[in-house]
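Hi everyone,

Forwarding the result from last night's run.
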Amino acid sequence: MSSTQSYPLTEFQAAMATQPVADSGAEDKDGADLQKLIVVVVGYARLIAAIIALSLVVALFVTLLTTPRYTAETTLQINNQTAQVLSKNSGVDENEATISSAADTDRFLQTQMDIIDSRAIAERVAQRLNLVGNAHFYQSVGYREDSDISKEKLYDDTIKALLKRHKSNLPRNSRLATISFTATDPVLAAKIANTWADEFIKANLQRRFDSSAYAREFVAGQLNDARVKLEKSERDLNNYARAAGLIKTRDQSAQSDTNAGMVPNSVTTASLLQLNIAANTAEQQRIAAEQRWNAVSRGNLLNAPEVLANPAITELLSQRAQIDGQLQSEKARHLDDYPSVQKLQAQSAAIDKQITSVATSIRNAVKQQYDAAIDAERKLKDQVGSLKNSSLAEQDRMVQYNLLARDADTNRSMYDSLLQRFKELTAAAGISASNIAIIDRADPPIKPSAPLILVNMAIGLAVGLLLSAITVAVRHQLDDAVHIPEDIVNKIGIPLLGVIPLANCELLQDMLADPKSLVSEGYSALRSSLQFSTQHGIPKSMAVTSSQPAEGKSTTALAIAQSISRLGLKVVLVDVDLRRPSQHGLLGVDNLMGLTNALTLQNSLPEVIRQSETLGLSYITSGPLPPSPSDLLSSERMHQLILELEGMFEVVVLDCPPVMGFADAPHLGHLVEGTVFVIQSDRGRRGSLKSSLARLRAARGNVLGGVLTMFDVQKAANRYTDYYGYEYYRNTYYTDQK
């Protein structure tokens, strides 16, 4: 037989519907989860409020009892690269890497922040301010000094106290870093913050100075090595020149100038150049002398330029011209034998001899010059040829000399560079500027940084919310009791047949008799669910049981029978609880004869069946209590009685004993068509209920569903907002009754 979920038919059952209709949309699912969360929060509202209030009170007391602390802050500017004091070409700051990319800048700034937070800076601050063993410092930072502690441990604790109270921060996209220190003494806090910044700058400069000193030592060592190499190369060069007989005239400035032409670098080469120049000059002089000689030796001597250019010849020619003029004048007047004419002719002849003699002397002088030029040219060319051979031989010896000379020049250049570098490092030592500058120095703060009442209260509120959430979650997960109808499906895993509200025991009979009462409406809804629990309607026979006693199963069994009888069906109610029977008390009859009489064959079945005209149903009480109820209920006679009752009545309702601790209910559940499981609200536990259901199913009993009894509508309405409708219906009902 398959069980189905209850379908409400009345107004109260509609109000008591506990499960929303499932929808495929994610929005409805999220809404259901949110609604469930709200229900849980509202249910534990008092607990949550108490935890939050306690957290706020604790936060307030902690705030009032905490000693005020003051935080002083110093602002630094950290640049990428140190400003160069000397010129860039000096090379003093070449060891400072230029930071160009953004990644390098971020890495550099983070490195500086790590240095600020390092233990080394803290140790410098402690030494600068003499904080080790300073009682005032320990009191300000909350450190308790132990008289038996060692010096090493005290020193280590002092440094740890400094690092614990110190904080540094560098905002993103900024070069302004802050160094703060917190203490109960504002003056001490400001002093330590400023000292921390000063020591950080000094440590940075000290690292630069140490780096420069190391560079100087390194360059000094290299300079000494270069000097030794230079001396050795110069000595080797001189020794080779002496051995090879080379006399060099070295001019490095001239050799390095490509536009200077060939410059002699040895005596032989210099002599060769000079003799070559002299030979060329002698050749030119010889050619000029030869030209003069050709002009004098060929043709008329008096027409030669050398003769005509001679002053003596010019003077003689002038005199002869005068005498010739006078002679012509005398010849015009006298004859050739005239004394004056002869005299003038004698003078003219004497002048001609003089001219011829002077011209001959000039020709002879030109000849001598020509011969001397030829001789000088020949001698110079002979010397040039001799020096060429010597120069060629010297060039062969110059190959090794040039190698040694180049090695000496290289060593000299290296030595000069290192010497210049050493001088620059020595001049720049200790004058490099820092790339860190203090922007704002810390002043003793006026207002304390802690405790802050608003912050502490906010923290208390957050802690209270967190603790309340954890507490509620744990309690909600550990709470396995059945409180509301949804718990029957969610915690127990069986269909919900009905919900019976809590009622006064003294008025229970009156409420069952009144069809409009809340209890009657609840059982009417239960009957409606039973009508749809099987394919043919209400089960032919059913057992009503519970996990433990006093959960309302007997009342439920009576109410089910009474409600079904109102449909005009023949119903019999059988009290099979042979240990603690209660149906005779509910019906107000005696229990002298009943089920035990029929099971023991003392009376027939029709004899033990009684009729209730008021309720309109038949019933069988338990009868006298037997010594062994389990034997009677598990006998074949019990099975036959049930079959006989099913033949005599349309519906058979068995009021069974509880499941836990007894074997009666599982056995009877196997004999009937279905079992109604009664669960008391706020009492039933998931573990015991599941164990009971497992026993019923192990006996192959058909559990139709669960009935939640004694459900406090008022409590549910206050705890769970979903049950506001219940309270509304109940208030409406009572208003109508009044």
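The two ends are 45 Å apart (CA to CA).

Cheers,
N.
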